[in-house]
Amino acid sequence: MKNDKQGPMENLLDGLDQHADALSSDEVKSELEDRGIDVDAGVQEAEMTIAAYDKEDRLSWMKVADEKKASLRVAESTVVSWVGRKEEDIRAAFEAFLKRATPNHALAFRKRDQLTVQDMAEILDADESLRRKSDDEGKRE
Amino acid sequence: MPPKRVNPAVMAALKQPGWKDTFGRAVLHADTTIRKYVWRGFRPKFRAKNEITVGDKSASDFVLEAIRKLLDGTRTYDSSKDLLANLNSITDSLIWSEKKSSDRTGIVDYAEAPDENGEESDPISTAQDVELTASEKLFHNELREDQRRCFATIRESFDGDRKMQEYLDALSEGIFKRAEISEVTGIPVEQIDELRRKLAKYARRFFGVPDFEALQRRLDEGS
Hints:
heterodimer; A: 2 domains; 6 helices; about 0% strand; B: 2 domains
């Protein structure tokens, strides 16, 4: 396709540029040297820039992972376990848990007659831990 | 809120084994883009070793800036294109913006159009018909005449090399696709790359010359 907007020298430069894909790396380097360009210096600077972004990227995500880990540890450490509490307290809390659960969750515990008090206490602990975790994430967002 | 991540596609492209070669080719493209402005009247500056600049930025500086913009997400990486095409597209618009802000010495611009990222792009590639004022038209014609004289001189220097002259003619007419050049000139496609190599060895005589007189001086010096 002809480009009438450019003069012959502009077109010549454009053509040389488009056909530069035929040149080897050494030929490109040599052509750049002819134009007064030290490509090695540019590559070195680019490598430093890329390495800096790469490092920052990795560090920022390590920080996020550390924060999540720390918040989980806090949530776990402050939960007072239901295991070992009075049986009637556990049963009452479990009934309350089932009442506020979604229909799907309630369905999952339809055979609750087969659950021991220990099972109920552990389910309550897991629920408490999950609620604290999601509250914590909600606050951060 | 989690920190903004570097686009993994950008990082992967910049870590590929051939990326240094891509960097060199991107610099070559950026330098060519700057030199095209010279033939439209832009008066560039030079660093030591004759490295051409726009404002205080060289072709390498523009490519580095393009890399930074891809890394920090200021410019979007188009995954449907390779790294070189992405860098070329960004450097074109960076050079255009820098040229616009650093020089107003009568360059004949055709049009200004924002690209998909809202940044002004090189008008060479987005040219539209624009009515020039009388003085602009005069300046435009002088530049065009200067280009014609330079091209004719370069062409004459290849007297006796018919294939090279036909290759030059095709390029000067804006015919760049190898198959089209072959169709117009009869030169086999596989010989076109050889002509490009041969021309590159000679090209240093006219790369960087801002006008016909400068080209003549270079030719007389035999540099």
